[in-house]
Amino acid sequence: MFDYHVHTNFSADSSMHMEKACQAAIAKNIQEIAFTEHLDLFYPNCDLTWNLEYDNYAKEIDTMRAKYGNQLKILKAIEVGLHPSVYQESRQFTNDNQFDFIIGSVHLADDNDLHEGYFFKDKSLQQALEIYFLTINNCVKEYTDFNVLGHLTLIKRYLHYLESHWEDVNWEDYFDIIEDTFKTLIDTSRGIELNMSGFRYNLNCSLPTLPFLQLYRDLGGEIITVGSDAHCESYVGKNIALGYDLLTEAGFQYVTTFEKRQPIFNKL
Ligand SMILES: [Zn+2]
Ligand SMILES: [Zn+2]
């Protein structure tokens, strides 16, 4: 198994030491782990700094590879938060430094963050979802310097701000925009991520769910990674096996891993 979305204390919202994550991965028979630390150069309404100290990070990866490299493949990776005001700076960062794998994620919509709920103010559920999916569509078209689109439907975590729940939403209403987003990714040799964190946010589902995976597959999508989005040891590798079952159910025969930003297809 491969866990392609893990945050350590090089990310502002995690205090997990990389070594603990490596040990947890080995204990759970994970063969590859990607440390996808945050880089969100524009993040309003938040006191944390979403920067990555690359040199220290790279040094720690080297130390971990020397110590655990014979039991675990360790990937140098990053989760870039996409926003037009920082495209250039973000691109510069990933060009100047070496990564095996890059997730592109949308954590904001309408220039506001989803997490604290500012985005949802004075919006209906339908407006919020439409803006959210259009924001992602724009980002994917404007910014191509990543391998997979992270946690599509992350907005499900925050629908309580509108006193709603993801199960109340008719997601197919947005499939036209999403289809266009998927086609853009496929045409540019990029893919999507199946993020399993929804199972620990009381959503009891993956991000995204099976109908989205089927749509992506039906459009010819092949590049897909699975990640726990763990921020602590106990979640490393969590629900990855379930993610592979979902991929099989959606018609995928392979799960993707990366090396020096090139996809590798592993039989499920
Ligand atoms: Zn994220
Ligand atoms: Zn993440």
UniProtKB/TrEMBL annotation:
UniProt KW keywords: Amino-acid biosynthesis, Histidine biosynthesis, Hydrolase
Annotated GO biological process: L-histidine biosynthetic process
Entry's Gene Ontology molecular function annotations: histidinol-phosphatase activity
Cellular component, GO annotation: cytoplasm
UniProt cross-references to InterPro entries, sorted A to Z: Histidinol_P_phosphatase_HisJ, PHP_dom, Pol/His_phosphatase_N, Pol/histidinol_Pase-like
Keyword Transcription: no
Top-level taxon of origin: Bacteria
Polymerase/histidinol phosphatase N-terminal domain boundaries: 2-84
The protein's Enzyme Commission number: 3.1.3.15
Gene3D superfamilies registered for this protein in UniProt: Metal-dependent hydrolases (3.20.20.140)
Pfam families tied to this protein: PHP
UniProt pathway: Amino-acid biosynthesis; L-histidine biosynthesis; L-histidine from 5-phospho-alpha-D-ribose 1-diphosphate: step 8/9
SUPFAM superfamilies in alphabetical order: PHP domain-like (SSF89550)
Catalytic activity: L-histidinol phosphate + H2O = L-histidinol + phosphate
UniProt key word Amino-acid biosynthesis: yes
Entry's family note: Belongs to the PHP hydrolase family. HisK subfamily.
Record's protein name: Histidinol-phosphatase
Organism, as annotated: Desulfuribacillus alkaliarsenatis
The organism's taxonomic lineage, starting at the top: Bacteria, Bacillati, Bacillota, Desulfuribacillia, Desulfuribacillales
